[in-house]
Amino acid sequence: MKKQAMILLTLLSMSVVTTAWAAPAYEGGKLSNRQGPSFADKEATKDTQVLAAEADTKNKQAVKAVLPITLYGDEVNYHKADGSFSATGNVRVMQGGQVLLTSKVEGNMQTGDVYLNEGGQLLENFSDMHGEWVHYNFNTKNGELKKINGKSEEDFFKAPHGTIAAGVITLDEGASSTRCPAVVHDPCILFTADKIEIYPQDKMIAYDVKVYLKGKHIYSRDRIINKLDGSEDQSAIPRIGFESENGMRLTYQDNRMLSKKDVITSDLAYYSKAGWKPMFSYKHDERNFYFKLQTGNEEDSDNNWIKKSKNVILAYKPHHIGKLPVAYSLYFNRGLWEDDNQTSWHTEYGVYLNHDRINLDQKHSLFLDLGVGYKRVHEEVGDTTESTMLYNASLGKQFDAKWSSWLSYYRQNITNNIFNYDQPDMGREVQVGVGYEFDKKNKVIFLTRYDEGERSLYEYNLRYIHKFCCFNFELEYRDIKFNGNKEWNIKYEIMNW
What we know:
With 497 residues, the chain is mainly beta. The protein is built from two helices and 34 strands. Strand 27 and strand 28 form a beta hairpin. It is globular, with a radius of gyration of 25 Å. The N terminus is likely disordered.
């Protein structure tokens, strides 16, 4: 029955809420996201590939082991001779944090079949899903579900039919998803697809996608590919925003799938000050590694632009080292880089080790994230080679449902004297952050960044975030002490789908 619950839970992925792995990660040779640790997930330091590998191991172990399940019902019957069983009346099937509620369940332990002929409800964490009819076979790992609907976190979803085969969940008679709770009126934003393929803990592929605004069809796409870990910035419709350096921003991403592993992506971006800044890429994605070819423009967190041509990235995704709570990743990057001053063949490579989150109390409200890495950079112009170690440590505390705080340390030396792009603001940074969540829709984050090398205050950062039913609004104010600049940034965009 655990497999049944897990398969049902996996279907919640169709709502494509992408988890933000907000702990520092090794991306393209830099420590990304110096915005503090994640308080949303207790395993936030683990990469999706690591989690997927762990899930595979657990599934294999579960097949060999007897699963501890508690079954309640007004009437429970089991026939040892042929393996058949049934339960009726207020049936509850519980395992860990999973609760399956139904009025009737029947099946056979020998054949592996389980039937919920009168439907059922699955509750786990913040997920609530209903299915009017369910069949799953533990031996063949195949299944079928009918008339699915529910809520996962902030997403409402529906699908008339789904099948499970070879580890892939297929919603083959259409599906819809929205974050708008409207019942009487049309939702503000609604997505529909004729068919959805879900590769658990990896990606979702939706075919013949339509986007509706207040019931009116405004946009269509042949296919959408969504990484379920949120590792890539994705959008089904254009997004708008404002930045002090670049002015008004309009962005749109288009994915064209050549195969289930090969995708051509066009990141189209226009800025009122910086102008037209597109990026085009081809990516071949395997489970353990990916290959990417880029040409176009990219911007770092300090508004430094770089034009990349023939830029090749080969990356080995994070994996655990045996049974140790440490994941490692590798990457190699070579391309022709250009800014306003010069052009150079840029080559870099590196390795990063990330420790699983260390919980320091039983409630997991006090935790420590640790990471260490090494990178080496060579520029053809000037024939320069630089290398650096990378370190990060974050101590986080969740005081209650509203208050959280953290203390972080980052260290990374400058490795490029030719381009300013992708270089750290400071070699040694101490960061203190405080977050307050007024309610589920409103949050304030205050961040102080201190330059430990120069022994001076670097920046005050204040962000206000408001969630509409289908949109995010973010207002950011930066008081940058080291140069006296003050910046305002505004984002108003549809939530990732």
